[in-house]
Amino acid sequence: MRKTFFCIDSHACGNPVRVVAAGGPLLPHLPVAERRALFVRDHDWIRTALMFEPRGHDVMSGAIFYPPYREDCDVAVVFIEVSGCLPMCGAGTIGLSTVLIEEGLVTPRVPGTLSLETPAGRVDVTYRTEGDKVAEVRLFNFPSYLHAADVRVDVPGVGPLTVDIAYGGNFYAVVEPQENWPGLDIGSSAIVALSQKLRTALADVIDAVHPENDRIRGVHHAIWCDNAPKGEADGRGAVFYGEKAIDRSPGGTGTSARMAQLHGKGRLAVGGRYRNESLIGTIFDGHIEDEVAIGSFTGIRPSLGAWARIIGHNTIFVDDRDPLFKGFQIG
Known about the structure:
331 residues, alpha+beta, two-stranded antiparallel sheet, 19 strands, 18% helix, 43% strand
C-alpha cells in the first residue's frame, strides 16, 4: 500500500523544517502531549520515513499540525525530528508558524499572534508580514532555567569537561571554551564525535528531570559555545541533537537554554539581549522577557527573533513494498 504525504518544506535560518499538511495520522482530540504519546506508540514509522534517508537526511526537522485541544491556542503541533518526537523545537516552531500564516492554513484568533499548543506547553509567536509574505517572527518560548551548574564529567578520549545543564524546551549540556574544548573551529564532524561521547558520559553523572513535567527528562542535546568571529552577535553556538545532527540554525531551544544558563550564572539580566550565531552565520535575536519560577528553580521567559522561508511543496510517497519505507540512517 502506498501512503501519500503532502508537505510544505521550509527552512528557519538554514535549518530544514518539513511541515506535513496532509497525510498525517488521525489522532483523538486530546491534549497534544497525549497525542504525541499515541503518535510515538503507533505511528513513529511516519517520522522515520519523512525525516530519515532517502526522503530526508541527518538534520531534518518537521512538524504535523492538528486542531488545538486548548481553547487559548490556534493550533496544536507534534514535532517530528531525526532524534524523536521532541517536546519543543524552536526552529521547527519558526518554520511551522511561517508556513501556517503564509500558506493561509490557520487564521489566528488575534491578528499578528499565533498561539501553538506544543507537548511542552503553550508557545506564542508574533509575526510581521510584508505583502503576503511573513518577513520575520518572534517566538516567545516557555520558561527556561539553569538546572545544574559546573557539572564535571570525564569524557573518554577527551578528558574532563565542566558543563552547565540548562533547559530551554529540551535539556542541554552547555559547554563553554575551556582546556579540553578549544572552540568551534575544530569542525562539525569533530563536534559530533565529541557530543556523542559527552552524552554517553553524562548519562552516568546526572539524570535531569523537569520539576513540573517528569515526562521531560534526560540530557540528549548539547550546545557548544564560542565567541562570535565577526562581532555581529554576542556569541556563537553549535547545537547537537539526534545521533549525528548539528543544527544549521542557532537553535531555538538551544538559544533559550543558553540564555537561561547565562542568567542563572548572573551574566545576563532580565531585559538583556543575546544574539546567537550559528555555524553558517545566521542569527537568532534572543531576549529575556522576565523572570519566572519553575518549581524550586528561578528561570526566565525567553523570546527569539528570527525568519524562515518556504522552499517548496513536496508530495512524498511511502510504499510498504519498498524495503526501506521506514527510512534509514547510516552509522
